[in-house]
Design a protein that fits this description.
Distance between the termini: 33 Å
Radius of gyration: 17 Å
Shape: globular
Strand order of the largest sheet: 3-5-4
Number of helices: 8
Helix content: 40-55%
Largest sheet: 3 strands, mixed
């Protein structure tokens, strides 16, 4: 939907920098942009795929989170290709992106809806290192790497990224329970 596109975490940094964004809502748009790489002298680039090179990553912060990111990658290895610091996010904790030559998440949905066999494409989990949730998870990881809540939170972050792009989580009842338990503790 247009609302989901406008509010996508993938656009947070682009909006903050006042980039012009072309929102595409027709299934045919996916194929058109593969052939039409430029319009009116401006190069078209997917907000979902590849590195947008919007900001530099703080290398000290990246180093601080490196071990945690490796741990998250190991926990989610069946679902994701990589964990990396995000250059796209400002307010959201996580999003899913792809490499520039990957099939987009939307294209996968179109093919699945039409009954096509879609090869499993693992996506990149991008995490906002400046988000308070990541700071709390990092502190928990540094205190006790075997804390059972840590694995739940890692899967919850992936679920949040999936939901933010309009996808469906693999275990909705587990997601609901974890969120309910977190809310009860507040």
């Amino acid at each position: 939907s247009m609302s989901a596109l406008i509010n996508s975490p993938l656009l947070e940094q682009l909006k903050s920098k006042d980039f012009e964004v072309l929102l595409m809502t027709d299934p045919i748009d996916e194929w058109v942009t593969q052939a039409l790489t430029e319009y009116d002298g401006k190069t078209l680039k997917s907000a979902e795929k590849g590195d947008l090179d919007l900001d530099k990553i703080d290398e000290d912060t990246k180093g601080k989170y490196e071990t945690l990111f490796k741990h998250i990658r190991a926990q989610l290895e069946d679902s994701i290709k990589e964990v990396r610091p995000s250059r796209r996010l400002i307010d959201s904790v996580a999003c899913l992106s792809g490499d520039s030559d990957d099939m987009s998440g939307y294209m996968e949905k179109i093919l699945k809806a039409s009954g096509q066999e879609v090869p499993q494409t693992k996506r990149v989990l991008e995490l906002n290192m400046a988000h308070p949730v990541m700071e709390k998870i990092h502190a928990m990881f540094e205190t006790d790497k075997d804390d059972v809540r840590l694995e739940e939170y890692i899967h919850l972050i992936l679920d949040l990224a999936v939901i933010s792009e309009g996808g469906k989580v693999e275990a909705p009842s587990k997601f609901s329970k974890v969120v309910g338990d977190l809310m009860a503790k507040v």
